[in-house]
């Protein structure tokens, strides 16, 4: 019996990494009976007669798990957003950040295609970088032709399990291919008529990149706040959490309540107005969400 980590799940097989060797395993029938599905990222005990004939016997308790993409025990999310094609979208970035924060993952923001950015757009991009760094998020500017910037991204990946998130066309797969050319992950050009990329990633797989494990993750680009409760939303904005104890009311939702420290922060510009406006939009979205039965 040995312990390993599932790095790929495909067609009922689980590929378990143990001491640098990958074993192809099936799950035991007991998992089906208990309705447990092993996930990529799971730490498992397994038994294998050969490299192709193994069985997963048990799954260790998960630190966390995502539903879309189905993956467990993730340390951080690299949120890739581009400056052009598609244009930088702060609302979408904040949506990703809320989703990632709600799963208790460390977000790292990568702004890609800096080498394709028009001169007049640069001050605005740099201002957004300043705002998000002030909140406490690492913000990496990425250009495929700048090795120093790619080295910075590699340093963030070392010794961690990372998911990559971002809308289609921002260059997630291209970035992984540049970091490790042997991967040859399929990428699609932006579909001009739709103005967005086509989904090319078919399954979740952890790739060994820069001394860490990185998942190229399909399904992360349609984002709703399915399970997030209204009371939890403010916890996903670190700059709100920093001042919320100064709100007059405990459990303040920072919307209409008097003597709210978050609203005061927006007024004195210590909290970015666009972040607060997005928060209000998300509040409405959660309020209007149809109940699930």
Give an overview of the whole structure.
The chain has about 290 residues and is α/β, with parallel strands linked by helices. The protein folds into 3 domains: about 1-60, Nucleic acid-binding proteins (OB fold (Dihydrolipoamide Acetyltransferase, E2P), Beta Barrel); about 70-215, P-loop containing nucleotide triphosphate hydrolases (Rossmann fold), CATH 3.40.50.300; about 230-285, Orthogonal Bundle (Ribonucleotide Reductase Protein R1, domain 1), CATH 1.10.40. About 30% of the residues lie in helices and about 25% in strands. It has 9 helices and 13 strands. The strands form 3 sheets. Strands 10-9-8-11-13-12 form a 6-stranded mixed β-sheet, with helices on both faces. The chain is globular, with a radius of gyration of 21 Å. The protein starts with a strand and ends in a 6-residue tail after the last helix. About 35% of the residues are buried. Residues about 190-200 have low confidence and may be disordered. It comes from Halobacillus andaensis. This is Small ribosomal subunit biogenesis GTPase RsgA.
In short:
With about 290 residues, the chain is α/β, with parallel strands linked by helices. It is built from nine helices and 13 strands.
